[in-house]
């Protein structure tokens, strides 16, 4: 997927880059595979803001994607590639032999007409889904389950790829895109290959308005606020806060670890920060 640039008709337009969408073969999604996606604006069911600086954005519909890959032993054919506004990856529309249609994440190297299958005896080919215990070490994977039967949760963004390093006891060892090596049950399912749309990382937003289209509102610094709004606010003129960096609720942030899940620490063999 080549990236394209634009004529600098405005200062912000000079550096913007985007996709030419040449790999897409279908403009409209399947009507029975989409559902409404109401806007939340960063608010929960009580109307309280739980994620700040969110709101607006272009209207979207949610594409129902088969992350579970639970249609076993039935061969499907890639019929089209489509755009999904809710994620960086592209979607592949699959037509199964029994007439059902489903969306899956489009893997790098997939082509229209490629046949895929989810089976414990499937070949190690791009787009096929198998349990980790049936996949040889060194294989590239995406859409990996955390727990057997829960559906793929890991490695789903554009260009994402995990590598199956090996096996120990009843666990498979995976090297994640972040460099972390973690253990996952060998009964979890995964899809062969790397997620497509590799050029997504080269995209340049270019202007503030483009972030507004995505639903991101301007992010205000704490030191620019009043003391009533943030612990680091206030002061005569410009200040650097006058105290250690904190969240709006007073929790120290500089150098603090954000992970707090001792229950799953035992599954991490090598931390992503370790070089």
Notes on the structure:
With 275 residues, the chain is mainly β. The chain has a domain at 24-201: OB fold (Dihydrolipoamide Acetyltransferase, E2P) (Beta Barrel), CATH 2.40.50.140. The protein is built from one helix and 17 strands. Strands 9-16-10-13-14-15-17 form a seven-stranded antiparallel beta sheet, with no helix packed on it. The chain has a four-stranded antiparallel beta sheet with strand order 7-6-5-8, with no helix packed on it. A hairpin with an 8-residue loop joins strand 5 (76-82) and strand 6.
List the topology elements.
Layout lengths: L2 E3 L11 E3 L14 E3 L24 E3 L12 E7 L8 E6 L4 E5 L9 E2 L12 E3 L8 E3 L1 E2 L6 E3 L7 E7 L2 E5 L5 E5 L3 E4 L15 H6 L54 E3 L5
Antiparallel strand pairs: 1-2, 3-4, 5-6, 5-8, 6-7, 9-16, 10-13, 10-16, 11-12, 13-14, 14-15, 15-17
Looking at this protein, list some descriptive labels:
single chain; 275 residues; mainly beta; OB fold (Dihydrolipoamide Acetyltransferase, E2P); seven-stranded antiparallel beta sheet; four-stranded antiparallel beta sheet; 1 helix; 17 strands; 2% helix
Give a brief outline of the structure.
With 275 residues, the chain is mainly β.
Q: Give me the secondary-structure category.
A: mainly beta
Can you identify the CATH class of the domain at 24-201? Mainly Beta
Number of separate helices: 1
Order of helices and strands: EEEEEEEEEEEEEEEEHE
Helix percent reads under 10%
CATH architecture of the domain at 24-201: Beta Barrel
Low-confidence stretches: none
How would the global form be characterised?
A: globular
Which oligomeric form is depicted?
single chain
The fraction of residues assigned to DSSP E strands is 15-25%
| Radius of gyration from CA coordinates | 22 Å
Number of strands: 17
How far apart, in Å, are the first and last alpha carbons? 32 Å
Mean pLDDT: 93
The description of the largest β-sheet is:
7 strands, antiparallel
CATH topology of the domain at 24-201: OB fold (Dihydrolipoamide Acetyltransferase, E2P)
């Amino acid at each position: 997927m080549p990236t394209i640039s634009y004529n600098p008709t405005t200062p912000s337009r000079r550096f913007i880059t985007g996709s030419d969408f040449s790999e897409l073969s279908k403009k409209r999604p399947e009507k029975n595979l989409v559902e409404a996606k109401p806007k939340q604006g960063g608010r929960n069911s009580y109307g309280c803001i739980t994620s700040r600086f969110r709101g607006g954005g272009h209207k979207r519909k949610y594409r129902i994607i088969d992350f579970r890959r639970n249609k076993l032993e039935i061969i499907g054919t890639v019929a089209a590639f489509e755009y999904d506004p809710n994620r960086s990856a592209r979607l592949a529309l699959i037509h199964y032999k029994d007439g059902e249609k489903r969306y899956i994440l489009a893997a790098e190297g997939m082509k229209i007409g490629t046949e895929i299958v989810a089976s414990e005896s499937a070949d190690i080919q791009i787009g096929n889904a198998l349990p980790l215990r049936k996949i040889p070490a060194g294989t590239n994977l995406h859409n990996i389950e955390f727990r057997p039967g829960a559906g793929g949760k890991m490695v789903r963004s554009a260009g994402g790829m995990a590598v199956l390093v090996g096996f120990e006891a009843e666990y498979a060892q995976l090297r994640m895109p972040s460099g972390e090596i973690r253990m996952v049950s060998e009964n979890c399912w995964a899809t062969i290959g790397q997620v497509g749309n590799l050029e997504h990382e080269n995209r340049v937003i270019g202007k503030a308005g483009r972030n507004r289209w995505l639903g991101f509102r301007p992010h205000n610094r704490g030191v620019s606020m009043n003391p009533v709004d943030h612990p680091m606010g206030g002061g005569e003129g410009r200040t650097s806060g006058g105290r250690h960096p904190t969240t709006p609720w007073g929790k120290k942030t500089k150098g603090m670890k954000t992970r707090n899940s001792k229950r799953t620490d035992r599954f991490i063999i090598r931390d992503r920060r370790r070089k």
